[in-house]
Design a protein that fits this description.
This protein has 278 residues and is of the alpha+beta class. It is 35% helix and 14% strand.
């Protein structure tokens, strides 16, 4: 997502191949000025840790109104009134007074809400959320997820939600992409991924998740081994050293995404249900 938004410094970063199409434009071919026009206006991002993402020496109001004045051509008063509306929209009480406050005067949940307000300021078409509930307690997590679902319906925007929390995925997502070591290993509608997981990594993730149904008394499974060193490109399937179904082809050739049905595809040489080659 940082690459798509043009936030990876080049050098040392490098985009060696691929494309990122947003509406009718390839974002990877735009210059910095063109990206500045899109970033924050049509594409917005909520970062993982609001305490390090918010500027500690600027008030919350100054940080929200900046994008409104830059992208929406609002004057100072218009931007301030819009910022009050946004803080109210994300559930921050006494929003006009809160605009004067600094990030350290907000709780963790309130800072995350302020980050969401900043991201929504220009009514983006696509909102990217990078583990926005990771640092929050469970109650606040649930509030943020419900808030995002409500805003998605109210504003009609799309959301890319990056998370390790499979419970959040089940309650929020429509389409799921499971990734391992930078590769997509399974993709499909959320109901298919949870009712019929097929890739060994997806199966292992779900087996490690505590359950409340009839299987709640079974022991949780861990995934053996460790993630690969991403500085060294894997020769075969990156999950092969940790996979219980591995065969020789897995160690030498990285599989591409292959369809299971018209909506569900996986990158695996083996049928995990039978243990036979696909």
């Amino acid at each position: 997502m940082m690459s798509i938004l043009g936030l990876i410094p080049v050098p040392p970063g490098e985009i060696s191949s691929g494309s990122a199409h947003f509406w009718d434009r390839d974002l990877l071919k735009l210059n910095e000025k063109e990206m500045e026009d899109i970033r924050g206006k049509d594409l917005a991002m909520i970062f993982q840790d609001p305490m390090t993402s918010l500027n500690p020496v600027l008030s919350i109001g100054a940080q929200i109104t900046e994008s409104l004045q830059t992208h929406m051509n609002m004057d100072k008063n218009q931007a301030k009134n819009r910022a009050v509306e946004l803080l109210e929209l994300v559930g921050i009480p006494d929003p006009r007074e809160r605009l004067k406050h600094y990030p350290h005067q907000f709780s963790g949940g309130m800072r995350q809400r302020a980050m969401i307000a900043m991201a929504l300021a220009c009514s983006p078409s696509l909102l990217i959320a990078d583990e926005p509930t990771t640092a929050l307690d469970v109650t606040i997590q649930a509030q943020i997820v419900e808030l995002m679902k409500s805003l998605r319906s109210h504003l009609g925007m799309a959301i890319i939600w990056i998370t390790h929390d499979l419970g959040v995925v089940a309650g929020l997502a429509e389409r799921v992409i499971v990734m391992y070591a930078g590769y997509i290993v399974e993709e499909g509608p959320v109901d298919d991924i949870y009712s019929d997981p097929t890739h060994p990594y997806t199966l292992a993730l779900l087996a490690a998740l505590p359950r409340a149904d009839h299987r709640r008394h079974s022991r949780l499974k861990s995934i053996p081994g460790a993630p690969p060193n991403l500085l060294v490109k894997p020769k075969g399937c990156p999950f092969a050293p940790r996979c219980e179904f591995t065969m020789e082809r897995c160690r030498t050739e990285n599989p591409t995404l292959l369809p299971i049905n018209e909506r569900h595809q996986i990158a695996c040489w083996i049928d995990s249900k039978t243990g036979e080659p696909r």
